[in-house]
Amino acid sequence: MAGADGEDLGRDLLSDLRNEKLTEQTKVSLLSLSLEYPSELWPDASAAEAAATSLLDVLVLLPPRPSALRKPLLLAATSVLVTGGVLGSTSGASCRLLPLLLGLASGRDVGRGFGPISEQRPLQATACECLRELESCKPGLLGGSLGLLRSLLGQEGPIQPLSLLLALSLRDSLVIQSRSGASLQGLLVSGFSTGSGPWDWTLAEEGAAHLIPQAPSWPTPYEGGCGLAALEPSPEEARELRAAVAQLLDASYLLTPVAQAQLLWLLGWTLRGLRGQPPALFKPQLARLLGTAQLTLLHAVLALKAAFGEALFTAQDEALLLRRLTLAAQHPSLPLPTHLFYLHCLLSFPENWPLGPEGEEAAPLLLGPQLCRSLMPSLLHDPMALLARLHLLCLLCAEEEEEDKGQLQSPWQYLEELLAGLRQRAAVGGSPRALATLCFQASYLVASCLAGKTKVLTPLIHGLAQLYRARPMLAPHLVDFLDKVGPELGEPLKRVLQQEVVSRPVRNEALRWHLQMLAKVAEGDAQTATLSFLQAAATHCIDWSLQQALLRVCLALLQAGGGNGLTDLLQVLARQLEDPDGRDHARLYYILLAHLAGPKLGIALDPSLAAPALASSLVAENQGFAVTLMVQETPAPIQLSVGPRMLKGSLPVLQLQIEALEPIYSLELRFRVEGQLYAPLGAIRVPYLCPGRPAHPLFLPLKPRRSAPAHLEVQALYSTPAGLTCHAPLPPLSVNFEDLFLPFPQPPDGVEQGFFEKLWDSCLPKGAESRVWCPLGPQGLETLVSHHLEPFVIMAQPPTNYHIAIRLPPSSMLLLRLEAAQVDGVPVALRTDDWAVLPLAGDYLRGLVGTK
């Protein structure tokens, strides 16, 4: 919809809204489109202004009878003004919409030619929602209407939208008045005006310069001269402000739980940093809120606790809230999201605020072992619940410095047993990957929460080393774990793992994982044992991937400082490795180690923009050096062709045969299809190709968006033995119609006829049907089917009758009835659920006679 098409659609939409032949329901659907995509339909300010004006004209011209269009028109006009960026004092549509919304919210304009009395409350609620949206986008816009909105709250009308609108406008006005240094005189009195009417564009411009959060977050308590702390209301102003807040809180029980939570946050934001306004106004609400079963209200209570602390919550309130959270989290029938919410509340339970200067010792944790004994984690829990409960257990262990001898089982013992159980499950051969992931997540959580506790880190280190000994294939998990943890755990764990690896016998099945682990943990301290292990492993590294893993360990040792033993090993590898890429790497590492000192070697292995350049006569700015840095276009050194058709998986796969005319390395084949017939195709990578050596076939999964043949453009990117990077275009590859054929699952014996007939009947009426004549030639029908259509036969009565079902991606099918074959041909009845397939199927069948 972006671009000129979207603008044309916007003009047509506005024209259709004036069309009297369209029903109201159709127009409501059109307005829902304008609510969903206003910025695409009217992208610039002038178009948005004209669209809002047109929507308001349609609204005013509606006849005075009940209509479903008034509310969507108000919402659409508001959305267009906001998203178009034209809301302001210079906008004619804004100056028309704001008085209309304020009049509807106050009930003045309803019943006097605008609409029937029966629509008063719905229109009032919609007008309040529109005004709240405008106030959110232009904070302070309704600063002159606070008194009017407060008076409306005591009248008959929709309480929830009015309460939220008044709370938002009050919060914004207080913030902006405090920044400008103005007073609150008369703002909350009905009939007061700022001088520019009930809306104040001056305040709105000041508010737009300072974004005010619209989601739960608290301001700092003392923000200096620009925060609420700078506003010092007089006794009369403070009394009016307290009365307004009390009026909103008294009616809050009539709101939905979500609206109550939003209202409490807005009022808490307003009073938190305002001088002379104690939070005792919230105290009457606590008796109701502390016993609520609504999660949103419970979250609002915790937000108030975080905002006001001891000024609002007594020690009894705090204990009651904590006990309620603890008991609720233990309920056995809670759904998992609710259970996790309660655990999150316990983990993030706000302490008393303020506690004193930063760095002072915090108050002791109220959640002791006795209270949360039933919240201890177990191996039977869901992984997310287990991690949350484990976090709680770590907090208890952090508070309990010494084990209590009177307890049957201290938190420290429980923690060690739980981690041991997780490691034991992860060490079982063939266990799911999720168990290993959970074990390392729990270990990381413990290491993060108890980083300075050697009491838990020492058994954790030895436990992880034992886990690796039992199951070396978890090396990738351990490498990722080492990347995440701090040095207090990472350094000793590296040393233990290095000793564990080099002390193990070199076995082919685990060698890959040992090399991957050594590349991460190899250091200069135990280089002799590491080099001995690598020398023994070199004889077992027979394929390219193992040789690369071995060289990565050599690189890690090189970065750690190298040594004479490493020099000897690199010389041996440069001569003995079978793969030329591995020999080149080993030779390069040997040259670097033999000719560069420590600082220069570090810069060469890990170049940085901040590191000084090395002045050396070995590197000259010549043409040959520049050529090596460029990707050059060359004639194609390979030949690529389509091999026999493959039938496996849920997508068609193109089998490719490749032949190299010269040695090439790191080949990458990139494929592209013109148009939108196919989804983007992935690249195919081949490490090494050599002339005369047979290459494995390549497999290219196709992702058709339509069942149609196509031509694939192919580009090859590769490296030459001279070290140059080149690219070459290859001849295009053809994807024929039959390359897209996939078989249906073979039905059980005895139901083939019913299965085919059910597919046959399902094609109509939405599909298409046709008949073609398929010439046979001398080969006969049975030979033709066995050569071309055998995998797709559902039922056969050779040599004259065959029922064939073919799946065509993405979601089509082609059904064939070959019956009553004659000498020179056979009539074929075709059915498909995609009419575009018929001409392709006809051409394919007619061409079978000349295909081998």
UniProtKB/TrEMBL annotation:
<dbReference type="InterPro" id="IPR048978">
    <property type="entry name" value="AP5B1_N"/>
</dbReference>
<dbReference type="Pfam" id="PF21588">
    <property type="entry name" value="AP5B1_middle"/>
</dbReference>
<dbReference type="GO" id="GO:0016197">
    <property type="term" value="P:endosomal transport"/>
</dbReference>
<feature type="domain" description="AP-5 complex subunit beta-1 beta-barrel">
    <location>
        <begin position="664"/>
        <end position="733"/>
    </location>
</feature>
<dbReference type="GO" id="GO:0005765">
    <property type="term" value="C:lysosomal membrane"/>
</dbReference>
<dbReference type="Pfam" id="PF21590">
    <property type="entry name" value="AP5B1_C"/>
</dbReference>
<feature type="domain" description="AP-5 complex subunit beta-1 N-terminal">
    <location>
        <begin position="12"/>
        <end position="81"/>
    </location>
</feature>
<dbReference type="InterPro" id="IPR038741">
    <property type="entry name" value="AP5B1"/>
</dbReference>
<dbReference type="InterPro" id="IPR048979">
    <property type="entry name" value="AP5B1_middle"/>
</dbReference>
<dbReference type="Pfam" id="PF21589">
    <property type="entry name" value="AP5B1_barrel"/>
</dbReference>
<dbReference type="InterPro" id="IPR048981">
    <property type="entry name" value="AP5B1_C"/>
</dbReference>
<feature type="domain" description="AP5B1 middle">
    <location>
        <begin position="237"/>
        <end position="601"/>
    </location>
</feature>
<keyword id="KW-0813">Transport</keyword>
<dbReference type="GO" id="GO:0015031">
    <property type="term" value="P:protein transport"/>
</dbReference>
<dbReference type="GO" id="GO:0030119">
    <property type="term" value="C:AP-type membrane coat adaptor complex"/>
</dbReference>
<protein>
    <recommendedName>
        <fullName>AP-5 complex subunit beta-1</fullName>
    </recommendedName>
</protein>
<dbReference type="InterPro" id="IPR048980">
    <property type="entry name" value="AP5B1_barrel"/>
</dbReference>
<feature type="domain" description="AP5B1 C-terminal">
    <location>
        <begin position="755"/>
        <end position="847"/>
    </location>
</feature>
<keyword id="KW-0653">Protein transport</keyword>
<dbReference type="Pfam" id="PF21587">
    <property type="entry name" value="AP5B1_N"/>
</dbReference>
